[in-house]
Amino acid sequence: MTTGTNPHLILLRERLAPLEALELDIVDESHLHAGHSGNPGNASHFRATIVAECFNNRPMIAQHRLVYDLLRDLIPHPIHALALTTRAPSKGNL
Known about the structure:
Strand order of the largest sheet: 1-2-3
Order of helices and strands: HEEHE
Low-confidence stretches: none
């Protein structure tokens, strides 16, 4: 897991807790996007890899919907972008 000082990272981890992820790796990529025109107010950019039992027997779009439903009120601000990689544990390594 990646740790950092971005307070949105802590919020993101809290919101994703209901997934009971076996693996949750979140990378703060905000520094790569600072100042671009689609990023008003320096909102945060993250990349997340999530492995969770709740993704079993769900297509990828349904997995992503589960995640985004937990974060609905955080996007587009304070979280401007979230790149997701999700899978069920039964699907092996990414």
